[in-house]
Structures are given as structure tokens and as C-alpha cells.
Design goal:
ten-stranded antiparallel beta sheet, Nuclear Transport Factor 2, Chain: A, 451 residues, alpha+beta, Glucose Permease (Domain IIA), 20% helix, five-stranded antiparallel beta sheet, disordered N terminus, 7 helices
């Protein structure tokens, strides 16, 4: 008989083992979480994203993650603009300046197509200024100051350029000044807070009546009403002198500025007489001193004998500007014996003036040319028979020498009759203001200081 056997052994089903393993894992995780919970620890399941990184807030462990390409911030290269400031020198052109600075000259050509730009850029004078902002040579912005009140700006707009002229008006204010001379006009002006330009203008107004080299005395005083030019709360410069008074050795000189309807400007006395004469008392700046006056019996410093000195010598370092004493014509320019380099001018009324010992001549003062009063004709020097650099100046009437300091000078034309009433009306308030300022400041400066 066959041997009886027991039931056959069955293999465990694979799925059953998977279920058992899963249950065991879940139990282990539960136990792990429970233990961590009991220890007071927390796991955060969400964390912020910072630049492509997840940071666990508690564990602070960076875990790299992938960031989609489209989410990455785009890096844009900003254009780097540069500014160039130009000051025009003699012979400069914009094309040359653009080429030297490697600026886009085709852009310049486009800009010059604009009417106003062509007007204000094609004709440039030495000293003119303009600025250009560019991006690697391509013009972004061009600016030129046209005058105190107007600025032209050209800005790139796509493939073209836009132009505008902005206006910033100036403000004209009235100011006054008063000074008493102790040693010199310049020092008195500085103590009164007056600019060199303003005091030179004051001296220019009275230059026909006062020799500011010889005639100034201690105690002389001046008063003026003048304009100041302001913009955006800042003073730009001094303007015109409207009215002025100069008291020299007790004698009072007054001048009022007047512009007639024909735009002709001059300075006149309260009576309407022109303060300008046909000749200046001294054809040189107001700071030199007189080394030798008009003297028929002077002993010559070089020849050591009595020789008439038929003019006035003004001490002046070589190169000091010499001006024409009056309107006239150059009838001699060149070397003239002991006079050295000399210019002689022929004026109306059979008057001639002579300027000697010049270091050099001005290019515009050529023989046969006409010159205006105050025009630069040469520069002082030490040519000829001299002991030091100076200007020798002579004034002749009909060939006869006259003392330049005391000769009666021909007058210029007074106020035209047709403008007489207009002048009187304009001058009255200025004269009142001048008198008030002079009287008030004179009293104030004469008061003793309080102890």
C-alpha cells in the first residue's frame, strides 16, 4: 500500500508579505513621530523659497530644488551714459570735436537738420560751451546755453531727435553803494563790498572829468545806484550803473544813465549835458602813478639837463593796456627816436595825441585806420630813451603841446531836444534816490561808535 502522506505545504502569497511590510513601516513611523513629539520637536512641512533654494525654518538645512527656466529673473544690461563738456576754442568745429571724442557724427547730421539746432550750432565762437550725453558714442542728449535766460536741449527719441528751448528769466534788482576814499579808489570799493567791474565802470563814467591817477584825495567819496542780475535766488552779476555821484576835492559830479527810444545809451548830467568828452583825461588804467608831469623846465633823467617835458608819464609795467584817448585816425605807427615805439592819432579840431615807449602795437591800430575812444591801441613798455617801463602821453592842439591834465576838453553832444522831457522824467526819481542814499549813508558813517 502506498504510504499515506500529510497535506502539502503552501508558499506565502507575495502580496501578503507586502501588506505586512507596509504595516510594519507605518508602525515604525508612528513610533518615531511619537517619540519626537514627546521630546518637543517639530518638523515643518512648508518652507519659503529663496533664490531657487528651500530652507527648513527650524533645521536651516538648504535643500537644492529645480527652478523652471521661465521663472528665473531676466538680467537686463542698462546703457552706461557718459557726459562730455566742450568749451569752444578758436578754429574748433563740431565735426572735429565729435570725431576727436568718437561721437556719432551721423547723429550730429540728424541734429543739424533741425532748424533751431542749425541756427545755434553752426556758428560757434571761442568760449561758447555745450555738453553731450552719449551711450557708447550714440547721442542721448545735447545741451547748449544760449544766454542767461535760454537753454537749447536736443534729446534722442527713437530714431530721431526732439528739440526744445527752455526759458529761465532773470530778475533785475536795484542796489546801492557808498564809499569814502582813504588811500585809493580800489580799497574804498573793496571796503564797500563793490566788485572790481563795478568800480571800473564808475571810474569810466567820470574819466572825462576826474584823473583817477592824480586827482584822487583822501575824503573823496562816491555813491551809486546800480542793478544786480539774479536767477533762481542767486546773484549772477552786477548790471548797469543807473545813477552815480563822485565828490572830488569838494566838487560834485553826477551822472544819470539814459536810453533814448532809438536804443542809444549814455550818461548825462542832471542838466542833460553829456558827461562824455571827446577825450579821456588818461589813456591808461586807473591804478598807475604819474612819474613825471607836464613841465617845460624839467631836468631830463637820462640826459641830465633841462629839457621841456611836453607830456605826462604814467608808470606802467610792460604790457599794460593803452587806450585811444579819443576817436581818431592812426597817422603814425613805428619807431620814433627817443620815443621808441610810438603811435600818433589825428583827431578833429586839429588835435593830435601821442603814445610813446610802447612794447608792442595792437593789430587793429594800423597806420591809416580809424580808432574809437577807449579802443586798445598798444601796450606799455620801455623802448626808446627811458629808465623804466612807462607810458609817455602828449596832447597837442595845432602842433602846440598842452597839459593833458588841465587842457579844456571838447564836449560831446547833450540830450537831443526831442528827448529832453523824456530824460527829465526818467532822471528825477534816480536823482532823488541818489541824494537819499548819499545823505543817509554819509550820516551813518560819520556817527561815532557807541561805547
Amino acid at each position: 500500500m502506498p504510504e499515506a502522506t500529510g497535506p502539502a505545504r503552501r508558499r506565502p502569497h507575495p502580496v501578503k508579505w507586502l501588506v505586512i511590510a507596509a504595516l510594519a513601516s507605518a508602525a515604525a513611523v508612528t513610533l518615531f513621530l511619537t517619540l519626537f513629539h514627546d521630546a518637543g520637536s517639530t518638523i515643518t512641512t512648508e518652507a519659503p523659497k529663496i533664490a531657487g533654494t528651500i530652507v527648513s525654518r527650524d533645521l536651516a538645512l538648504p535643500v537644492p530644488i529645480a527652478v523652471p527656466a521661465e521663472a528665473a529673473p531676466a538680467i537686463v544690461s542698462e546703457p552706461v551714459s557718459k557726459r562730455i563738456d566742450f568749451e569752444i576754442a578758436s578754429g574748433d568745429t563740431l565735426h572735429q570735436l565729435f570725431a576727436a571724442s568718437k561721437l556719432n557724427r551721423s547723429h550730429l547730421a540728424q541734429i543739424l537738420q533741425l532748424d533751431q539746432a542749425r541756427t545755434h550750432l553752426q556758428l560757434l565762437r571761442p568760449g561758447d560751451r555745450l555738453s553731450v550725453v552719449h551711450d557708447d558714442g550714440d547721442i542721448v542728449h545735447l545741451q547748449r546755453v544760449l544766454d542767461e535766460e535760454r537753454t537749447m536741449e536736443v534729446t534722442r527719441n527713437g530714431d530721431g531727435f526732439d528739440l526744445k528751448v527752455t526759458t529761465n528769466p532773470v530778475e533785475v534788482r536795484t542796489a546801492h553803494a557808498h564809499g569814502v576814499i582813504d588811500s585809493s579808489l580800489y580799497l574804498a570799493a573793496q571796503e564797500a563790498g563793490i566788485s572790481d567791474t563795478l568800480i571800473m565802470n564808475l571810474a569810466g563814467i567820470f574819466a572825462w572829468d576826474v584823473d583817477f591817477v592824480l586827482d584822487i584825495r583822501t575824503g573823496d567819496r562816491f555813491t551809486m545806484i546800480y542793478e544786480e542780475i539774479w536767477q533762481d535766488g542767486e546773484k549772477l552779476r552786477d548790471g548797469d550803473i543807473l545813477a552815480a555821484e563822485f565828490i572830488n576835492s569838494g566838487k560834485t559830479f553826477r551822472a544819470i544813465r539814459f536810453e533814448n527810444p532809438e536804443k542809444e545809451v549814455g550818461y548825462f548830467t542832471p542838466d542833460g549835458l553829456n558827461v562824455k568828452k571827446a577825450f579821456l583825461r588818461a589813456p591808461i588804467a586807473i591804478n598807475p602813478r604819474v612819474t613825471s608831469s607836464f613841465n617845460p623846465r624839467r631836468k631830463h633823467p637820462v640826459h641830465n639837463k633841462v629839457l621841456p617835458h611836453k607830456g605826462v608819464d604814467y608808470s606802467a609795467p610792460t604790457g599794460t593796456a593803452i587806450k585811444a584817448a579819443g576817436d581818431g585816425k592812426v597817422i603814425f605807427r613805428g619807431r620814433k627816436g627817443g620815443y621808441g615805439n610810438t603811435i600818433i592819432l589825428q583827431h578833429g579840431g586839429n588835435i593830435t595825441t601821442l603814445y610813446a615807449h610802447l612794447s608792442k602795437f595792437h593789430s587793429r591800430a594800423r597806420s591809416g585806420k580809424r580808432v574809437k575812444q577807449g579802443q586798445l591801441i598798444g601796450y606799455s613798455g620801455a623802448t626808446g630813451t627811458v629808465t623804466a617801463a612807462h607810458l609817455h602821453y602828449e596832447y597837442r592842439v595845432g602842433g602846440v603841446h598842452r597839459n593833458p591834465r588841465t587842457v579844456r576838453l571838447p564836449k560831446a553832444q547833450p540830450i537831443a531836444k526831442k528827448y529832453r522831457n523824456l530824460y527829465v522824467k526818467a532822471a528825477a526819481p534816480l536823482l532823488q534816490q541818489l541824494e537819499l542814499v548819499e545823505r543817509t549813508l554819509r550820516v551813518a558813517t560819520s556817527q561815532p561808535a557807541h561805547q
